[in-house]
Structure formats: C-alpha cells, structure tokens
Predict the structure.
Amino acid sequence: MKTMRRHRGETQPPVEAVDAETVEMLAEAIAKPGSDALLIDRDNRPHGRVSIAEAARSGASFAIELADDMVGLDVDTREAARWVRNCLREQLESRKIPMVVQNSGTPGHLHVFAHVPDSDLKREIETAARFAGCSVRVGQRIRPPLSPHRCGLQISLISPAVPAEALNAKSTAAEGLSRPEKPWRRKGPGTRAHERRSRGTTLRRQGVPQRASVCRSTASVPRSI
C-alpha cells in the first residue's frame, strides 16, 4: 500500500493555477515556428485553429505541432511510464538533455518533451520510445505543457515542477548537448548492434515475431538509446 501511495504522488503532484501567459510561453517554446494551435472540444474533436496566444487565453484544451528538434511522447501505459522514469530520464541526463514531464490528466498518463537538436540521436530516442510502448508524436499534434485537459482533468508539471524551469529546458539542452560514444552503433561481432541483428535472425528462423519479443522486454532495445 505504501508503494502505491508513493507512485501516485509521483505522477499526481498538486495542481497550481497557471496564468495564460505561462501556458502560451510553454507552448511557444516547443512549437514549430509560425505554427498555430488546434482547439479540442470535450469529445476530442477539432474545434478550430487559432494562434497559440489566443488558445492559451481561451482556457480551452489545445494541441500544437512540435518543432522539428523536439521529442514529444504520449505515455498512456504503466510499462511505458516506468521506462520513462527508469531509463529515458537516466539516458537524457547522461547527455545533459533536460526532460519536461507532465501529468497529462488521466492518473499515470504522461506527456514527455525533450529538445534534441541532433537528428540522429532524436531518431534513436523515438525508436526506443516506440519499442517501450510510447506514442511518438512526429507529424501529430500534442497538448503542450499545462494546456487544459478537454474533460477538465487535473494536469500539472512533474519534472521540473516549476514552469519557469520548464521554460529554461530548451535553451539549457542546446548548450549542454553532447554526443558521448554509443557502442551499440558500432557494427561487427561483440557489439550490441551485431547482437540485435543476430538475435533477430535467430527469431526469424524460429518464426517468432521480433517486435512482440522486444516490446515485452524493458531490458532490451529501450535501454540502449
């Protein structure tokens, strides 16, 4: 029971009132330059397109297009949320890339954002996230941090908990981005890439679907982003 209470507190922090200007700045910080906002009605249907500033002032739920160098994840399963907490956070911290995580409304559901200017690294993160069960928002809109939930469910920042720190996450990432050696990218016997190909070949020969096999294991591909 104690564990359950601790987990709930981790994903459902207290909700604080946020002004429209903060919502607008958070959205603009991660949105594609010059893009607009898509208003969302209670039935999850499009309700018109307006500027991000208008959407923030309206108090309605809205979604945006992410900038090309932003990773955006919609996390709706317990396994995917565990991967974000236990794996993705550690991997991004090792590269000095801040991660913004928010409770998206439904208890345990998350929205995750990270500024990753390196396109190769961004693809690696997104591939790993898909294997972990996350919905990767590429070419799809997503509600930005602190945009209201369409049904009025409580939303709040988890990490960082302070909006001002979330706003600083993008510029900090650009300054601190590094490309440490990733041994799984090297090819040849004894490397992770080679082991994955070998394992995949063996599974194909045995008639075992590779994707299902990988998705069930949180210790395989998702841990090697």
